[in-house]
């Protein structure tokens, strides 16, 4: 069953483009109803327009978090949206926003992708942190958002190796290739069978790999 998405972005939009391309190629049974950005200079807005998707700026500058989220929600109310997808959205959503997308089973229908094997290396510099730590195996996590940062129920994880001669940029590129494949695949799985969760490992278990 096709699902209706809103995608929140702040930057270049590579995951947004991976999602839109998967829809265009018939690999993802979904429709992106709107792309929202807090950053008027986000390159992701041009990607949305290239694919014919409404691109709306809800600027966060000079607004309190609550004021900004109210404006986001007002905009989303104009569209038919089942899931909110975060694709490089660089703001933490509060419970006030999340409650609008609360599922009857207690989850929030807000999905994020994070460049580590959570719970290891939460935060905005996960690639850099994992590389500096010297991991031999890192990965990508797609998860539902909850009230904590990079913490919600896990939908999928895929590992990738750090090679001996990797630079940070090569390490990131390998991870991005996984991101661009995994995110549309997880959304397609939701379209086919709904939300299915994975068990959550501990940080110690992840870092021992």
Question: How is the secondary structure organized here?
Answer:
Blueprint: E1 3-9, H1 14-24, E2 30-37, H2 44-50, E3 55-57, H3 65-76, E4 83-86, H4 95-98, E5 110-114, H5 126-133, E6 137-144, E7 154-161, H6 168-193, H7 203-207
Parallel strand pairs: 1-2, 1-4, 2-3, 4-5
Antiparallel strand pairs: 5-6, 6-7
Helix pairs in contact: 1-6
Description of the structure:
- The chain contains seven helices and seven strands.
- It has 209 residues and is an alpha/beta fold.
- The protein has one domain: 3-Layer(aba) Sandwich (Rossmann fold).
- The longest helix is centred in the last third of the chain and has 26 residues, at 168-193.
What is the CATH C-level name? Alpha Beta
Tally of distinct domains = 1
Looking at the structure, what is the overall shape?
globular
Name of the CATH architecture: 3-Layer(aba) Sandwich
Enumerate how many helices there are, as a single number: 7
Radius of gyration over all CA atoms, rounded: 17 Å
Low-confidence stretches: 202-209
User: How many individual β-strands?
Assistant: 7
Q: Which class of secondary structure composition applies to the elements? A: alpha/beta
Features:
seven-stranded mixed β-sheet, disordered C terminus, 209 residues, single chain, 35% helix, alpha/beta, Rossmann fold, 7 helices
């Amino acid at each position: 069953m096709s699902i209706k998405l809103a995608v929140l972005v702040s930057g270049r939009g590579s995951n947004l483009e991976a999602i839109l391309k998967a829809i265009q190629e018939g690999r993802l049974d979904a429709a992106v109803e709107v792309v929202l950005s807090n950053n008027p200079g986000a390159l992701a807005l041009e990607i949305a327009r290239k694919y014919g998707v409404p691109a709306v700026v809800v600027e966060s500058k000079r607004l309190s978090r609550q004021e900004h989220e109210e404006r986001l929600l007002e905009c989303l109310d104009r569209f038919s949206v089942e899931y909110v997808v975060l694709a490089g959205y660089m703001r933490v959503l509060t419970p006030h926003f999340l409650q609008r997308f609360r599922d009857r089973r207690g989850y929030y229908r807000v999905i994020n992708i994070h460049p580590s094997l959570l719970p290891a290396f939460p935060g905005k510099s996960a690639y850099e942190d994992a590389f500096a730590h010297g991991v031999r195996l890192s990965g990508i996590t797609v998860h539902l958002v909850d009230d904590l940062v990079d913490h919600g129920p896990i939908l999928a994880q895929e590992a990738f190796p750090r090679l001996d001669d990797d630079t940070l940029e090569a390490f990131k590129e390998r991870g991005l290739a996984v991101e661009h494949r995994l995110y549309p695949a997880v959304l397609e799985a939701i379209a086919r069978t709904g939300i299915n969760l994975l068990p959550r490992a501990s940080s110690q278990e992840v870092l021992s790999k």
